[in-house]
Each structure stands twice: as structure tokens, then as C-alpha cells.
Amino acid sequence: MSTTPPDLELTEPVIPGPYTGVRFGRGDRVFSGVALASGVTILVTLAAVFVFLFVKGLPGFTADASIFAPSSSSFWTYVGRLLFGTILAAVIALVIAVPFSFALALFISHYAPRRIATTVAYVIDLLAAVPSVVFGLWGARSLAVAFQPTQRWLDHNAGWLPFFKGPASATGRTILVAGIVLAIMCIPIITAISREVFSQTPRLHEEAALALGATRWEMVRYSVFPHARSGMVAAVMLGLGRALGETMAVAMVLSASPTITLNLISSSNPATIASNIASNYKAEDNRIQTVLLATGLVLFLFTFMVNFAARYIAGRSERGQK
């Protein structure tokens, strides 16, 4: 006679799983198959993109030097300048977005009353739904004009720094403005992930810190941040991926060319790989199309390496907490 209570009896047959001593139900096997198929699909898609860029863009690495004249003498000089602009715009965006996003996430998860926190979180999430073109139009037509006095002030008062040496751009459409636009686009991603990992801090850890006499900030510093470190790294890397790959917003804000400069407020602005592709993809010369595909391959590999390094750092952080 069965001793299993009626409310605990299995409603479907249990099928032995692939692991010794582990038994899975039919629903578990279906879910496992769907998850496996999803993972394989993502990997196959990434592999297909890589193969396409490699096959179509490989001739671009040895393209004739006349294609890059007069700004560059070879492909590597050309893509190096574009990669510099890509990294510079992304760094500007992260310097602005990361502290602001962490502060917003912390305000939502630990400081704001529930009603206000829900409203703020909803508004921040809505920013992620705004198309890139809208951000680009706003940056080029509104922010650039409004930011002109600030850029002139930076030129006059901080011109001794290479970043603000000037002369300030007459249009206001500079790499600094593009970085601010990218920062606003990164904030919803970083904030959403950060507030989730902050909220998952064990309540007992927070209460123990407060019971020992810690202030609210000390509790956050010694309980919340260590627990959420790997998630914070993942949030920043996802924001970096958005900044590195953004196309239309940067292309609409900047009138750029492949150049290397640290001056953030002048009219001479470095271009990013993505914005350069968006600006020149209609070229009729097939050689230019090939070069653009080659630069896309460089951006693909660079983004992959950045995310791989971020995953390694996050993994070390998780192992250090055990």
C-alpha cells in the first residue's frame, strides 16, 4: 500500500534522467530540450555572423591603399582610428552612465518608498524602448545646441587639459555630446540589471549589518555591493556592448572622420566603426563595401574579447565569494 500522501503523489510518470540517481519528469525533459535548443540557436547564429563577416570581409584586409586615402595609408591604420573612436565614445558613455545607473538602482532597491520606486523603475525601463533614431535626433537637434555654452566654458576654463583644448565646435555636435547620448541609452540596461542584483541581497545580511550599528551606506557598502559584484560587472559589460555597437545615434550626432584626437569639444571628431559603416554602406564601390565588412569583423571580435574578459572577471568575483 502506498504511503505517499495524496497531495504529493506524482501526476505524471517519472523518466530516468541522464545523471546517476536523478529522475526527471516529462515536463523537465521538455524544458531541458527547449533550453538546449535555444542555447544552440544562439551559438549557431553567432557562428553564422562570424562566418559571413570573415568570408565577405577578408579581402578588405588587403585592399588597395587608394581606398583609404587621404586619411589613412593602410587598412590597419584606417580601422585603428575607427577603433579608437569606438573605444573613446564607449568610455565617455560608461564614465557618465555607470555611477548614475548604480545610484538609481540603489535608490530604487533600498532608499525610495515602494510607490516612488515602482514609478521611477517604470520610467527608467521605458527609456530602453525609445528607438536609437529618436535619441540621435534629440542629440543632434537639441542637446548639441543646448550644450554649446558648456563646451565654450570648458574651452575657456579647462583648455589646459587635452580633452577640452578647443576651439569649441560651432555646431556643438562633438564626440562629448555623442558620449552623453550613448550614456543615456546605456542607463536603462545597467540600472535594470543592477537593481535586480541589489534586491537579491539576503535580507538577513542587511539586518545583521544594521543590528551591529552600521549606517545605511555602510550596510550597502559591506553587504549589498560584495553580494552583487558579479552582477554589477555583467551590467556594465552589457552597457558597454550597447555603447560599442550603437550606430544611428552616433552617426546622426557626429560629422566625423577616421582620426585620432583626445579633444572632446572640437569640430574634428573621431568616427566609430558602427557609425562609419552606417555612413558609407551605400557606396557603389564594392571595394569599400568589403572594407566596411572587414571593419565590422574587427568590431565583432573586439566586442567578443571584451565580453569574454568581463565573464572571466565576474567568474573570479563569484569564486572569491565562496
From TrEMBL:
Is the keyword Repeat assigned to this protein? no
User: Which residues does the UniProt record annotate as the domain ABC transmembrane type-1?
Assistant: 83-310
Q: Which family does it belong to?
A: Belongs to the binding-protein-dependent transport system permease family. CysTW subfamily.
Q: Where in the cell is it found?
A: Cell membrane
Q: Which residues cross the membrane?
A: 30-55, 75-108, 120-140, 174-193, 231-254, 291-314
Q: Which NCBIfam families does this chain map to?
A: phosphate_pstC
Membrane topology recorded in Swiss-Prot or TrEMBL? Multi-pass membrane protein
- Give the main localization category: membrane
What the entry lists under InterPro entries is as follows: MetI-like, MetI-like_sf, Phosphate_PstC, Phosphate_Transport_Permease
Superkingdom assignment: Bacteria
Keywords linked to the UniProt accession? Cell membrane, Membrane, Phosphate transport, Transmembrane, Transmembrane helix, Transport
Against SUPFAM superfamilies, the record matches this protein to:
MetI-like
Pfam assignment, any one: BPD_transp_1
Q: What is this protein called?
A: Phosphate transport system permease protein
* Record carries keyword Transport: yes
Its function?
Answer: Part of the binding-protein-dependent transport system for phosphate; probably responsible for the translocation of the substrate across the membrane.
